[in-house]
C-alpha cells in the first residue's frame, strides 16, 4: 500500500500513526506542498486526489482520500489492533474527539487557507499567526473540556489504548507547538500527548522522521 | 432523543436528514446562533457541548456532538435503514465524500469564522462573500471530480439509495445556493441534489420546515 504524504501535513501524520499502530508497512510517496507551486495541485496528483490535497492512500482495492475515511478503512480491513472501541457509545465518542480536530481546528489552518489570508487579503505575519492561534486555542479548549468531563478518558483519549482520537490529537498538538501555543492550560491534552509521543508508532510517524523531512 | 439544532446550521441539517431517513422521531431543541450573543456560547449550552457549536444530540446513553459522529452512531444503533454500504471500500468512499464537505468546505464558512473575518479583520461584505464562494467552489469542484470518476456513483452519491454522503451533500448545496453559486458546472452534484431534495426525509429536514425557522 502507498501513502501520498508530506512530512509536515498533520492530516498525513494522522494516517502514518494509524498505519504504524496497526503494524502495516507502506510505501511513502512524497508530495511537496511548497515546491513547483505545490505538487498536490499538479495534474499528475489530481489523478489520485482530484481535490488536490494530501494525504491520499492506495491499496489493491481502493484509492482513498480524507484522513478519517482512510483510518476507518484501515480499521475495518486490519482489525487485529482496533483503533475504535467495541461499544457504540465509545466509538461515537472517539469519532467525536477526532472530528473536533478534523472539522473545528485543522481546516482553518490549512496551507491553502493561510495563503489566501496573506496573498488575497493581505494579512501581515502577525495577523496570520493570531488567526492560527485563535482557532487552535478555541478548538483545543473545546477538546479539553470534552476530555475533562468524560469518565471514559483514560491515560489515552479513550480508555487504556490508543484510538483514532489519539491519532488526531497528537498531530494537532504538534501544530500547536509550532505556533507557540501554551499547552499547560490544556492539562488532559498535554498529558495524553506526552504519553503518546514516545510510543514507537507515534514517534516513527513524527514529521522529523519522514524520508521527505527537511 | 433530542437534537439541539438551528434551522439554518448545515451541520444540524445533515443530522435531521439522517434521523428522517431512519424514520426516528426526536425532540427539537432550538439553539439560536444569533440571539443573545449566540445561545450556543452560553454556559447552559456548554453543559451539552463544551465546544459551543450545534448540533448536539442526546439519547438515554450518550450526549454527542459532531454531525458525522452523531450520524455514524445512529447508523450503528438503528441499522434497519443503513446509511453506509455493506462493503468496506463502499463505506470508505461514502465517508470520504462526506468528509470533503465536513472538512474541506463547511468549516471555512462557519458563522464564527465569518464573524472573525468581518469583526477582527475588517472584511467588507464583498470580500466576505468572495471568501465564502471561493471555498465552496473549490470544495464542490473536488467533490464533483470524485463523483464523476467513480463508477459507484449512482443516482445517489453512492449507488441507488441515500447514504451519509447525501446527508452531507444536500445541506452544502443549500448553502451554495444561498451564496449564488452556479451549480450547473457541477452536474453530478446538481443531479443528486435534485433527486434528494424532493424525497420526504430530505424535504422535512429543510431549514424552512423547522420549528425555529424565520
From TrEMBL, chains A, B:
Which major enzyme category is it?
A: isomerase
Q: Name the InterPro entries for this protein.
A: Glutathione-S-Trfase_C-like (IPR010987), Glutathione-S-Trfase_C_sf (IPR036282), Glutathione_S-Trfase (IPR040079), Glutathione_S-Trfase_N (IPR004045), GST_Zeta (IPR005955), GST_Zeta_C (IPR034330), GST_Zeta_N (IPR034333), Thioredoxin-like_sf (IPR036249)
- Residues annotated as coiled-coil are none
Q: Which PROSITE patterns match?
A: GST_CTER, GST_NTER
Pfam families per UniProt: GST_N
Q: Does the keyword Isomerase apply?
A: yes
What domain of life?
Bacteria
Q: Where is the GST N-terminal domain?
A: 1-82
What Enzyme Commission number(s) does the record list for this chain?
5.2.1.2
- Which keywords label this protein? Isomerase
Q: Does the keyword Isomerase apply?
A: yes
| Example of a GO MF term | maleylacetoacetate isomerase activity
Give every GST C-terminal domain span. 87-214
TM ranges: none
NCBIfam families in the record:
maiA
Its family remark reads: Belongs to the GST superfamily. Zeta family.
- Listed name of the protein: Maleylacetoacetate isomerase
Amino acid at each position: 500500500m502507498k501513502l501520498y504524504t508530506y512530512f509536515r501535513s498533520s492530516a498525513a501524520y494522522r494516517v502514518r500513526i494509524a498505519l504504524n499502530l496497526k503494524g502495516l508497512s507502506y510505501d511513502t510517496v512524497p508530495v511537496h506542498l511548497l515546491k513547483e507551486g505545490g505538487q498536490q495541485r499538479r495534474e499528475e496528483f489530481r489523478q489520485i486526489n482530484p481535490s488536490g490535497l494530501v494525504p491520499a492512500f492506495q491499496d489493491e482495492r481502493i484509492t482513498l482520500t480524507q484522513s478519517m475515511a482512510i483510518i476507518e478503512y484501515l480499521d475495518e480491513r486490519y482489525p487485529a489492533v482496533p483503533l475504535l472501541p467495541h461499544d457504540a457509545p465509545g466509538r461515537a465518542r472517539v469519532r467525536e474527539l477526532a472530528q473536533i480536530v478534523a472539522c473545528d481546528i485543522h481546516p482553518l489552518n490549512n496551507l491553502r487557507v493561510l495563503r489566501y489570508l496573506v496573498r488575497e487579503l493581505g494579512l501581515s505575519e502577525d495577523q496570520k499567526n493570531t488567526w492560527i492561534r485563535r482557532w487552535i486555542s478555541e478548538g483545543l479548549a473545546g477538546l479539553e473540556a470534552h476530555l475533562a468531563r468524560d469518565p471514559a478518558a483514560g491515560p489515552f483519549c479513550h480508555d487504556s489504548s490508543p484510538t483514532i482520537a489519539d491519532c488526531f490529537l497528537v498531530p494537532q498538538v504538534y501544530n500547536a507547538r509550532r505556533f507557540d501555543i501554551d499547552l499547560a492550560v490544556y492539562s488532559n491534552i498535554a498529558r495524553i500527548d506526552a504519553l503518546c509521543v514516545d510510543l514507537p508508532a507515534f514517534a516513527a510517524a513524527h514529521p522529523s522522521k519522514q524520508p521527505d523531512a527537511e
